[in-house]
Amino acid sequence: MFSYRHAFHAGNHADVLKHFVTIQLLQYLNQKDVAYTYIDTHSGAGVYELDGAFATKSGESETGIGSLWNLNEMPAPIQEYVALIKAMNPSGKMRYYPGSPYIAEQVAREQDRIRLFELHPADAKLLADNFRKLEEHAAAQGVRPTVRGKRVLVTRSDGFASLKALLPPPSRRALVLIDPPYEDKQDYKKTKDALEDALKRFPTGTYAVWYPLLSRPESRLFADKLKTLPASSWLNVVLTTRKPTPDGFGLHSSGMFILNPPYTLEPMLKQVMPWLVKALAKDSGARFTLETGTQASSARNSGER
Ligand code: SAM
């Protein structure tokens, strides 16, 4: 059950897609003063060492964030993402990579709430330790004191189950990131079920789901199933960096499926994705797809009334 460790994959092309989109979603929420809640149901360890044993064994970051590190010109949304990672690496050497909890902590404001869930005992401890260090650092510097107190809560628990108690959030504004390992194929169903329940409790929230594109049927059919959920609109963006290998080994494509996306997301992705495909391409199979829909169009397409 606990075989997955995100440290092997930190900073790969899938993290690039997930994290630059997450920053954009948070920045959209930042446009209004009213506080929001960021909920990360599957948080991981929060920060990763790219020169640590896990990351160097896989080498995955080299063809993800590593491909962007030395570029000078890039679209603004990618620039913002790369700048956040460079800020955690003041020596200029690419050593640390932020997970989604750290990214959210950096982008969200004083008044916003960050709720983090992680089930793996080792990663839950690392996550809590990383946030404790951040808090101590903030206290020592006298800056960003809001890390303390109730702004960030880290809980070792099942993110799917824990989500229920947080919805709807007090201010009726929230971004929920659901990013399970999917090594257990039940994660596909659990994600869809969790979204179904969440939309009943809080229909207007923004929900972002990361998913891998693998040959197993649960993965291939996943996005189409999410399109039938009763959100008023959805957006599905898939990044492919190479052709699949004959043995099917490794991750060549992943997607971000957003329920109730901000209206700014689609035009931004139309501009940025062609550039990102070129920057991360490993062969001529590299491409992206971008689809959007509304509840009405999904019901029509699936034959529902
Ligand atoms: N969201 C993180 C990021 O972007 O930096 C990466 C998360 S990683 C893909 C998935 C994490 O979910 C793993 O750390 C795994 O231990 C954890 N996990 C697996 N099942 C879980 C569950 N039911 N509830 C909470 N965490 C879970």
UniProtKB/TrEMBL annotation:
Cellular component, GO, one term: cytosol
EC number assigned by the record: 2.1.1.266
Active site: 179 (proton acceptor)
Record-level Gene Ontology MF annotations: 23S rRNA (adenine(2030)-N(6))-methyltransferase activity; RNA binding
Positions of S-adenosyl-L-methionine binding: 19, 42, 100, 118, 158-159, 179
UniProt biased composition (Polar residues): 291-301
Pfam family, one: RsmJ
Annotated site residues (Interaction with substrate rRNA) in this chain: 4
Domain of life assignment: Bacteria
InterPro entries: DNA_methylase_N6_adenine_CS (IPR002052), RlmJ (IPR007473), SAM-dependent_MTases_sf (IPR029063)
Keywords, sorted A to Z: Methyltransferase, RNA-binding, rRNA processing, S-adenosyl-L-methionine, Transferase
Known role: Specifically methylates the adenine in position 2030 of 23S rRNA.
Family: Belongs to the RlmJ family.
SUBUNIT field: Monomer.
UniProt name for this protein: Ribosomal RNA large subunit methyltransferase J
Higher taxonomy: Bacteria, Pseudomonadati, Pseudomonadota, Betaproteobacteria, Burkholderiales
